[in-house]
Amino acid sequence: MNEEEVKVTMIGSAYVGKTSLILRFINNEFSSETDVTIHIGCYAKNLELGEPVKVNIFDTAGTERFQSLAPIYFRGSHAVLFVYDICSEDSFNQLAKIWVPQLANVCDLEKMPVFIVGNKTDQLEENNISGKISKVSPGQVTDLATKIRAIQFETSAKTGHNVNKLFVESSRKALEYKKTIDLNKNTNSLMLNSYRSSSCC
Ligand SMILES: Nc1nc2c(ncn2[C@@H]2O[C@H](COP(=O)(O)OP(=O)(O)O)[C@@H](O)[C@H]2O)c(=O)[nH]1
Ligand SMILES: [Mg+2]
């Protein structure tokens, strides 16, 4: 039997830490000087989720130029991670106003596993110590998560907080979703075959 493969896609504005989250997960490393992702990158990791699964993680560029291409990358995804920076209200607003509607155009948000990921929690701790607070209110995030039935996560690529948990959980959900799609495909082709064999020409 072939090994299962799933596609998980990361979306969000530039600098929120998408590439850093992936590199923390894949190589357990963090750099404060990452290169800006210009096009799209694909990383893979094998996980044991009750069965061996190859997880393909697609890293995208959060630039305006990329926005028109987004639907192409969303297609075929089994889970989508919407990432924002917990200290940047703009990055959260872009999720709500740009990326979520883009995804809704091409994917069935009722069924597709979606995660909303507030990254850079380490900064919040540092800011709290120096008297500043997060610019994105938890209420805003919960409202959006409820609206699109998303699972909420808070992470830090810098400290590694919740990073493994995020990718394991999203890969597990992606696998469940893929299996329902495969099952539907098989059922449809069985129905088509039985229709063909019963409607002889
Ligand atoms: N403090 C902190 N900085 C982070 C974190 N994740 C990413 N960064 C930094 O934020 C900048 C942008 O990260 P990058 O992964 O390139 O963002 P991307 O454009 O979304 O892929 C880099 O300087 C990273 O080192 C984090 O969890 N905490
Ligand atoms: Mg990047």
Bound molecules: guanosine-5'-diphosphate, magnesium ion
- Structural class given helices, strands, pairing? alpha/beta
Summarize the helix and strand pattern as letters: EHEEHHEHEHHEH
Average of pLDDT = 86
Beta fraction = 15-25%
User: Roughly how much helix do the residues carry, as a percent range?
Assistant: 40-55%
- The tally of strands reads 6
Main sheet specs = 6 strands, mixed
User: Termini distance?
Assistant: 36 Å
CATH topology group: Rossmann fold
Radius of gyration: 19 Å
Number of alpha- plus pi-helical segments: 7
**Second CATH tier, the architecture:** 3-Layer(aba) Sandwich
Number of domain units: 1
CATH superfamily: P-loop containing nucleotide triphosphate hydrolases
CATH classification class: Alpha Beta
Low-pLDDT segments, ≥5 res: none
Taken from the alpha-carbon principal axes, the silhouette is: globular
Give the helix/strand layout.
Elements: E1 4-11, H1 18-27, E2 40-48, E3 52-60, H2 64-67, H3 70-74, E4 79-85, H4 89-106, E5 114-119, H5 121-129, H6 138-147, E6 151-154, H7 163-198
Parallel strand pairs: 1-3, 1-4, 4-5, 5-6
Antiparallel strand pairs: 2-3
The structure holds guanosine-5'-diphosphate and magnesium ion.
Magnesium ion is lined by residues 18-19, 37, 59.
Structure report:
There is one protein chain. With 201 residues, the chain is α/β, with parallel strands linked by helices. It has a single domain, classed as Rossmann fold. Helix content is 46%, strand content 21%. The protein is built from seven helices and six strands, in the order E-H-E-E-H-H-E-H-E-H-H-E-H. It has helices at residues 18-27, 64-67, 70-74, 89-106, 121-129, 138-147, 163-198, and strands at 4-11, 40-48, 52-60, 79-85, 114-119, 151-154. Strands 2-3-1-4-5-6 form a six-stranded mixed beta sheet, with helices on both faces. A hairpin with a 3-residue loop joins strand 2 (40-48) and strand 3 (52-60). The longest helix is centred in the last third of the chain and has 36 residues, at 163-198. The mean pLDDT is 86.
